[in-house]
Amino acid sequence: xxxxxxxxxxxKPNVVxxxxxxxxxxxxxxxxxxxxxxxxxxxxxxxGIKWYSTAYDDLIALYKDxxxxxxFDQVDYFxxxxxxxxxxxxxxxxxxxxxxxxxxxxxxxxxxxDFELTV
Length: 119
Prior knowledge:
With 119 residues, the protein is an alpha+beta fold. Helix content is 24%, strand content 22%. It has helices at residues 13-16, 21-31, 57-69, and strands spanning 5-11, 36-37, 42-49, 77-83, 95-96. The protein has a 5-stranded antiparallel β-sheet.
């Protein structure tokens, strides 16, 4: 049970190479091996995962490593979560601003109401 999400983390080499050992272990635990690595950076992507970034200690430490500990330039990484619980759980787990990443990773949120009239 619980909220299942899609999560993508794209990071330039300077970020990947300077993460703590604990953050690297967290990435491996949640994502497994990188989805793709190029000269420009590395992409990790996973579907159907419980990504509680404000509740799990290892994820809290990863976010702290990306933000406070290293103070990486935000245009050097992009970590986004997409889940069905929008807007209540909209973008609180999204950090970074590497919008021109080579994989075109973006978050697309769509809300609609569908119905059919019967006459």
